[in-house]
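Worked problem 6 (solution included).
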Amino acid sequence: MAKVTVQDIIDTLKEMTILEVNDLVKAVEEEFGVTAAAVAAAPVAAAAEEVQEGPKEVTVFLKSVGASKIPVIKAVQAITGLGLLEAKKLCDALPAPIKEKISPAAAEEIKKQLTDAGAEVEVK
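Solution. The predicted structure is:
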């Protein structure tokens, strides 16, 4: 019995109708106890994980409070849940992490709040 090459299989598949290919897939699934959906989905899932770019968790750093310190302190207080005195101390010790290990989307929202208050913010 001659060994069948990958190219032989591809050439044969090109000559088959969709119904014949469907019957072939079902026969392979029964013979080897696998499903074509699971076999096809595994590489797609792995590729999707590789495509996701950027970190999954980031930290928002307050770099500068800008010209108006009070709105920034109030924004930091609202974001962190700290008391007014603790938020002021945090704003005085710059650069300071405001929120750690958060999603990039949440970090962008916090960055917007702080920049609207007049602060300079960095997301790492």
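Discussion: DSSP finds six helices and three strands in the chain.
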